[in-house]
Amino acid sequence: MSRKRILIADDHETMLDEVRTLLAEEYEIIGSVKDGRALAQAAQDLKPDLIITDISMPAMTGFEAAAKIRSLGMATKLIFLTVQSDRAYLKKAHALGASGYVLKVYAHEQLPIAVSKVLTGGTFISPELPAQDWI
Asked: Disulfide engineering: 10 pairs with which of 28, 54, 87, 127, CB 3.0-4.6 Å?
């Protein structure tokens, strides 16, 4: 059985390393990028099963990259991994077709659960966030 392929995007190397460490044993990390423009290009080139991305990144935000990816017709599953807990961000992520939203402070505990749920067709929102905003 082949492992699910994940592309990660964050402008902080330490966060990229943490995500790789958390997920590499169970999933294939096919790439990591540090800005939204590189994310949109890598998504086109690598065709991942799942993208895990920050929102605030240089060149193009995670939201802009997600919109670009969606405009290309790619249905790749998407999890935002961010420090942003504001309701407007949560609603925007949902509007862009994200299946998950994880706060970075809880990444170690919640990201593996989120990835598993999203890759099996479910959704995951950090429990600390208001779930009613995921509409």
From this structure: 54
pTM confidence score: 0.95
C-alpha to C-alpha distances, 98 to 25, 125, 131, nearest whole angstrom: 24, 10, 14
Contact (CB, 8 A) for 28 and 8: no
Distances (CA, A) of 132 to 5, 57, 83, 89, 91: 30, 27, 19, 13, 10
Reported as a pLDDT band with limits 50, 70 and 90, residue 124 is very high
φ/ψ of 116, rounded to 5, equals: -60, -45
DSSP single-letter state for residue 14: H
For 12-21, write each residue's pLDDT tens digit. 999 999 999 9
Distance CA 85, CA 73 (A): 28
The identity of residue 6, as a single letter, is I
